[in-house]
Amino acid sequence: REAFALFQDMLERIKTETVNILARVRIRTEEDVQAAERRAPPTMQYQHEETTGFGGGVPDEDQGAALGGAGMPQTVQRDQPKVGRNDPCPCGSGKKFKQCHGRLN
Predict the structure, then answer these.
(1) How far apart are CA 9 and CA 22, in angstroms?
(2) Which of 40, 51, 101, 104 is the most exposed place for a label (fewest CB within 10 A)?
(3) DSSP for 18-74?
(4) Rounded Cα–Cα distance for residues 51 and 63 (Å)
(5) Which residues lie below 8 Å from residue 77, measured CB to CB, with a gap of 6+?
(6) How far apart are CA 61 and CA 58, in angstroms?
(7) How far apart are CA 42 and CA 74, in angstroms?
(8) Residue 84: exposure state from Cβ atoms within 10 A (0-12, 13-18, ≥19)
């Protein structure tokens, strides 16, 4: 009985809060939106130093070499199709990949 009473109280609070939120909703016209956009501050630009994480990164002079010079990482090319977690393990054990060699990954 106590749990049911608490449940009913919770439902009543949800109803009350929903009505309060809906009572405060203000529908904006296009004119209001345009006026707010005109008053908005100009687009901000963030400036920060480049970080390497928690101190375990590559020193500045080695960053160009670590990125391959071009700055774009190379896409990994697979010789075999990717094994799905529920597919049979390619080792031939008969188990699902996630229960066999996939557990190591």
Answers:
(1) 20
(2) 104
(3) HHHHHHH--PPPHHHHHHHHHHSPPPP--------SSS-S--GGGHHHHTTTTSSPP
(4) 11
(5) none
(6) 8
(7) 37
(8) exposed
Give percent of the chain with pLDDT exceeding 90.
22
What value does the mean pLDDT of the chain take? Answer: 79
pLDDT-derived band of residue 56, with 50, 70 and 90 as boundaries?
low
The 3-state DSSP class for residue 98 equals helix
Radius of gyration over every alpha carbon of the chain, rounded to an integer in angstroms:
29
For the record, the structure tokens of 79 come out as: 């010789």
d(CA 62, CA 66): 6
CA 37, 40, 42, 44 torsion: positive or negative?
Answer: negative
